């Protein structure tokens, strides 16, 4: 997911990436950066990473993305933002197996599922990162989103959302499922098809390459609730 230290408010603007080198601006614990990293891993795309402290952002980062969000990719002077847009670019621009579903109807249904998955994301954010009094409501919303994924998998009968192997939509949905498994595994196990799907995803090489320990997900969520986030906690724990 990128071991570089997270650059903060007073950091200097890094030199531009070299010609044809893909640079990712991200954050190690961001599920949206995770989306892009999964696609890069699945495609075998070499890249460099600049991690950003999202609480104390470098002022220069707003010239890369005026919203201050991650991920952003930079290549040959071009800047592209948004996790889905950058992931689609990588799939389109680089060689290797195409991850995007080609059948128009299947692709449309996956797009609808991504819209439904916004409930999973919204509920997760409310339950994981905000005060405990909001957790019950967040979990309820999150489960409504998980039910949509469960229904989709049941209706298609496929091993993965994109078919017989993980594709782009799988990698867009997985990062939040990984975090839900870490924080509230019962929310996964109560959905039969989501649970089976998640076990299969955990065997995927890109997922293995980008996976963070459950303990890191739990500690990051706890730090967010305390408003005392240490973005470089992994390095500190590994060195102790």
Can you offer a commentary on this structure?
The protein has a 5-stranded mixed β-sheet, with helices on one face. Mean pLDDT is 95; it is low at 235-240. It has helices at 31-43, 83-93, 104-129, 135-156, 168-183, 185-189, 192-201, 205-210, 214-226, 233-239, and strands at residues 6-7, 23-26, 48-52, 72-75, 78-81. The protein has 10 helices and 5 strands; from the N terminus they run ββαβββααααααααα. The protein has 240 residues and is an alpha/beta fold. Keywords: Oxidoreductase, Transferase. Belongs to the GST superfamily. Omega family.
CATH C-level class of the largest domain is Mainly Alpha
Number of strands: 5
**Tally the helices: what do you get?**
10
Widest β-sheet, arrangement of strands: 1-3-2-4-5
> Based on CA inertia axes, which overall geometry fits?
globular
What is the helical fraction, as a range of percent?
Answer: 40-55%
Number of domains: 2
CATH architectural label of the largest domain: Up-down Bundle
The averaged pLDDT comes out at 95
Strand content: 5-15%
Outline the biggest β-sheet: 5 strands, mixed
- SSE arrangement, N to C: EEHEEEHHHHHHHHH
What's the CATH topology name of the largest domain?
Answer: Glutathione S-transferase Yfyf (Class Pi), Chain A, domain 2
Low-pLDDT regions: 235-240
Question: Cα-atom Rg, whole angstroms?
Answer: 18 Å
Overall SS class: alpha/beta
Distance between the termini: 20 Å
């Amino acid at each position: 997911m990128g071991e570089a230290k997270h650059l903060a408010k007073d950091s200097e603007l890094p030199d531009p990436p070299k010609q044809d080198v893909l640079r990712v601006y991200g954050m190690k614990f961001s599920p949206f950066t995770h989306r892009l990293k999964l696609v890069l891993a699945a495609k075998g795309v070499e890249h460099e990473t600049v991690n950003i402290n999202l609480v104390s952002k470098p002022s220069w980062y707003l010239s890369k993305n005026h919203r201050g969000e991650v991920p952003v990719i930079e290549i040959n002077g071009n800047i592209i933002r948004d996790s889905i847009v950058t992931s689609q670019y990588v799939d389109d621009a680089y060689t290797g197996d195409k991850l995007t579903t080609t059948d128009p109807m299947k692709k449309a249904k996956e797009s609808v599922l991504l819209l439904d998955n916004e409930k999973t994301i919204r509920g997760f954010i409310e339950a994981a990162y905000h005060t405990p009094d909001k957790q019950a409501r967040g979990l309820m919303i999150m489960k409504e989103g998980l039910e949509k994924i469960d229904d989709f998998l049941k209706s298609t009968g496929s091993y993965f959302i994109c078919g017989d192997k993980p594709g782009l939509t799988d990698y867009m949905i997985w990062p939040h499922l990984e975090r839900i498994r870490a924080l509230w595994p019962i929310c996964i196990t109560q959905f039969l098809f989501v649970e089976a799907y998640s076990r299969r995803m955990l065997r995927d090489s890109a997922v293995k390459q980008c996976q963070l320990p459950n303990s890191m997900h739990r500690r990051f969520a706890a730090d967010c609730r305390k408003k005392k986030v240490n973005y470089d906690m992994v390095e500190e724990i590994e060195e102790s």
